[in-house]
Amino acid sequence: MARSRQETMEENRAKLISAGRKAFAEKGYAAASMDELTADVGLTRGALYHNFGDKRGLLAAVVTQIDGEMAARAKAIGADAAAGDHWQAMLAEGAAYIEMALDPEVQRIVLLDGPAVLGDPSKWPSQNSCLLATKRSVEQLLDKGVLKPVDPEAAARLLSGAALNAALWVAASDEPKAVLPKAIDAFRAMATGLLAER
C-alpha cells in the first residue's frame, strides 16, 4: 500500500531530526554541513527548508526532542528515587537534570549550542512544559503543607531556573565533573529553603 503524503513528510522530518542530532552532536552547530546532513539521509536541502525553514529551525527541533527526553528521564529518576515522596522526587529530578550536563550530546546541543543559537533557554517551548510540570509538583507540595506558603509559579520558575542554570554552568565548565557535585549541592540547599517549618 502506498504511503500518504503526510506519512512521507513525517518520515522525512524524523530522518532530518535524527541526522541533525547526529551532526550537531559530532561536529557542533557551526561546523555541521546541511548538504552532508541531507545527503546522509537521501534528502535534499529543499526538504530541510520545507520542514524547518533553515538550519536554525532544525536545531530548534533537535533541542526540543532532546529536552523532552531529558525531562522524561529526570521524571523517571525522581519517581524511582523517591518512592512516593513528592519532595524527594522533585530534588532527585532537579539533580538528574543537572547531571545530564555530563552527557556529551546534551552538553553540546542543548546546553552550549542551543543557547548560543536559539537564545534564552527559559523561553524555549520545551522548557515551558518542564516549568508547568514543576508548577504542578509545587502545587501538590503546597496542598500537603510540605512547602512554605509561596506563589507556585514563582517557586516553579526559581526551581526550574536553578536546575537549568546549574546544568549550563556544568556544561560550560572546564572541569564539569568537579563542578557537578557543587551545583547539585547548591541546588538542593536552595530548594530546601522552600520547606515548611516542621
TrEMBL record:
<dbReference type="InterPro" id="IPR050109">
    <property type="entry name" value="HTH-type_TetR-like_transc_reg"/>
</dbReference>
<dbReference type="Pfam" id="PF00440">
    <property type="entry name" value="TetR_N"/>
</dbReference>
<feature type="domain" description="HTH tetR-type">
    <location>
        <begin position="10"/>
        <end position="70"/>
    </location>
</feature>
<dbReference type="Pfam" id="PF21351">
    <property type="entry name" value="TetR_C_41"/>
</dbReference>
<dbReference type="InterPro" id="IPR049484">
    <property type="entry name" value="Rv0078-like_C"/>
</dbReference>
<feature type="DNA-binding region" description="H-T-H motif">
    <location>
        <begin position="33"/>
        <end position="52"/>
    </location>
</feature>
<keyword id="KW-0238">DNA-binding</keyword>
<dbReference type="InterPro" id="IPR009057">
    <property type="entry name" value="Homeodomain-like_sf"/>
</dbReference>
<protein>
    <submittedName>
        <fullName>TetR/AcrR family transcriptional regulator</fullName>
    </submittedName>
</protein>
<dbReference type="InterPro" id="IPR001647">
    <property type="entry name" value="HTH_TetR"/>
</dbReference>
